[in-house]
Design brief:
CATH topology: Rossmann fold
Shape: globular
Distance between the termini: 27 Å
Largest sheet: 7 strands, mixed
CATH architecture: 3-Layer(aba) Sandwich
CATH class: Alpha Beta
Radius of gyration: 16 Å
Oligomer: single chain
Number of helices: 7
CATH superfamily: Vaccinia Virus protein VP39
Length: 197
């Protein structure tokens, strides 16, 4: 089983985010994902006036969101000293960051690097900060076995079953599918088959 990474330096970001021959996704993927998330929320009647990106890395979401929400305030929080120094993000962890609530919280590719205890804390913290919606992407044990390109995906991670994440998330959120979660207090009505299984 892979072991979790504890170093997020320039070499890590060059390998997984910058180098075209080794990165998992490019800017066109980021733009499609941001358009999907914002369009789906718009369809559900969820207006997004602020975004908090916990584990923002190189700022892929900030760049992608500028095309669909150009005037929306964006806050980036990152654990990596290298990325904070380079991009000016707030220094912090998804498990412990304290700041104002945001309409949309993004946590993309972060939780798999945390221990079980810290991942549980992080999910509670995501719930605390997500006023209207959460977008969450995390590599599960099943994804590692069946879905990811292991040549491009970082293998130095904690692998947990998707059911583990669903249990933790269900305390605070309803799944809307597509990686989107709505807080339990959300007034949005989801038809049963719109909810993630």
């Amino acid at each position: 089983m892979p072991q979790p990474r504890d170093v997020f330096d320039h070499a890590y970001y060059e390998r997984f985010y910058a180098d075209p021959s080794t990165r998992v996704a490019d800017t066109s993927d980021d733009q499609k994902l941001a358009r999907f998330v914002i369009s789906y929320l718009d369809y559900l009647g969820v207006c997004i006036d602020s975004v908090l990106d916990l584990g923002c890395g190189t700022g892929r979401w900030k760049a992608a969101l500028q095309a669909v929400l150009p005037d929306t305030p964006y806050t980036g929080v990152e654990i990596s000293d290298a990325m904070c120094e380079k991009h000016g993000w707030f220094k912090g962890s998804v498990a412990t960051w304290k700041g104002p609530r945001s309409d949309l919280v993004v946590c993309h590719g972060v939780l798999q690097y945390l221990s079980d205890a810290d991942a549980k804390k992080a999910i509670k913290n995501l719930a605390h900060h997500a006023d209207k919606a959460l977008y969450l992407e995390v590599v599960s044990k099943e994804d590692w076995a069946h879905n990811v390109d292991k040549q491009l995906t970082d293998g130095e991670i904690n692998l947990r079953k998707a059911s583990w994440y669903r249990r933790q998330l269900s305390e605070h959120f309803h799944s809307a599918g597509g990686g989107l979660f709505l807080p339990k207090h959300s007034p949005v009505v989801l038809y049963e088959l719109e909810r993630g299984l």
